[in-house]
Write a structure and sequence with these properties.
heterodimer, A: 201 residues, Rossmann fold, five-stranded parallel sheet, three-stranded antiparallel sheet, 8 strands, 26% helix, disordered N terminus, B: 320 residues, alpha/beta, four-stranded parallel sheet, 11 helices
Amino acid sequence: MTAVPSGVRADDSPASRPTTGDLSAARPVLDAPGLARVVDRMAHELLEKTRGGADVVLLGIPTRGTTIAQRLAARVEAFEGLTVPTGSLDVTLYRDDLRLKSPRALEATDVPGDGVDGKLVVLVDDVLFSGRTVRAALDALADLGRPRAVQLAVLVDRGHRELPIRADYVGKNIPTALRETIHVQLREHDGVDAVLLGPAL
Amino acid sequence: MKRHLLSAADLTLEDALLVLDTAEELAQVSERTVKKLPTLRGRTVVNLFFEDSTRTKTSFELAAKRLSADVINFAAKGSSVSKGETLKDTALTLEAMGTDAVVIRHSWSGAPVNLARIIRGSVVNAGDGTHEHPTQALLDAFTMRQRLGRLEGLKVTIVGDILHSRVARSNVLLLKTLGAEVTLVAPPTLLPTGVDAWPAEVSYDLDAVLPKSDVVMMLRVQRERMGAAYFPSVREYSRRYGLDVDRAAQLQDHTVVMHPGPMVRGMEIASEVADGLRSTIVDQVTNGVSVRMAVLYLLLGGSEPAIGSSSETRMGVAAQ
């Protein structure tokens, strides 16, 4: 398995784009309290937009999307005492850029017990970029069942969409140049909560 | 560049664990309503079986189909052409059709290695003579890990016709890589020459080894490969080297009993043991599909394979 720098899924961007950045040169866009506030707001928005979130299933895209999904679920539970089924959905086998690189190790797919049929599935990812990961996730989801509706929550929207995809819940819009890098760091993986913007390479 | 899976020895520890971890995720697909992934769409896999096989052929076919590859079953058996020419000509024909991978089973040890030298696509060894059967070893390791939670330090006993068994050879090589300790138990006549060079212990006394084993793998006596008598009688073989109910009672509580199939009930294994709670025989078949999906994905799923051996093969070919 190849090491992926914090918060940057190498496969989130076409081969021509930078996938690593110099973290020391990156500047913080969100610190830990800021990130926590953003997740709190997203949890409130989720409850508001889904009218209480009764039939919601949160599916995070590994690895950091899964963690963010778990945090959203924890906040929803803290605010309204509602337990939202939460899982993860690996999209590797549905990607459109599989043939550009050597095969990758798979991440966990873990769908909550009741499945996705008839549910409101909210896909959760850390960074929305080209939109290709989300397209793959929609295909993967279709093979798992038929949700009532699908929504998308992302911590960071950095623009540069290559497909007609938009998020329903956005933690922070960060306008970027194509060659800049976004690093989402989460306590569970990186020991610290932060979002960093790295300089163009 | 890694391209083929010809021998279990081609897999590094990292490769082997990657296959097992990938297979674990892919196993979920078999439990879904839609048992299909788009991953190998547009790729062509040829099943080239020169030897009888139900289990392995079906397993490979299902694995390739679940990944959306196109599968061609090449009926090689019964060809009247001289065998050496057939293999080469067949290979060139397949090459000309633009196949991405060839899954080959052949009664000649080393046939897959030769095929790998001829064609551009990936070659997967699905059993060659008395030499190797690497995907069987992978599915066995997967099953052991699934049942016992680990592979490192496991005491694995392989019993029976080691001489003619490609399963035994591949298992010894792979389990060595994975850190398990293998003991081979067989009558002296059914051990290959040079077995002392294998990374395994050898014993002739099944009863002494059984209580210490975490895994007992029984092998069928391959009488179709035997020109002469290797043991006095089936009954005597069964009494000394068969896993009957009394012997199974000596096993530790957690010990599992495996068999690569096809098995001869009442000879190397008693029906009660084969159908008992310790037995993983059905799991092995289920896991075979997942493991072969993992191998096909890792060889064909990307721009270049993630596991396996280069076409410049480094392994020796067993004497028949």
